[in-house]
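User: Hi! I have a protein structure encoded as tokens and I'd like to know what sequence might fold into it. I'm fairly new to this, so please keep things simple.
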């Protein structure tokens, strides 16, 4: 979140995925977060 009152689309994301070693490690989590952020900010 942001203290900036002018920000029209504040967002807070907290994510955690366990046991991702065999499915891409942290990159697996980053892809999921990126998809949410891209949609939120309209960048598809």
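Assistant: Happy to help. Inverse folding works backwards from shape to sequence: for each of the 44 positions I chose a residue that suits the local structure. Here it is:
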């Amino acid at each position: 979140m942001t203290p900036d009152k002018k920000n029209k689309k504040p967002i807070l994301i907290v994510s955690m995925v366990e046991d991702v070693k065999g499915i891409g490690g942290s990159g697996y989590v980053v892809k999921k977060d990126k998809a949410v952020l891209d949609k939120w900010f309209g960048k598809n």
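A useful reference point when you look it over: The mean pLDDT is 83. Feel free to ask if any position seems puzzling.
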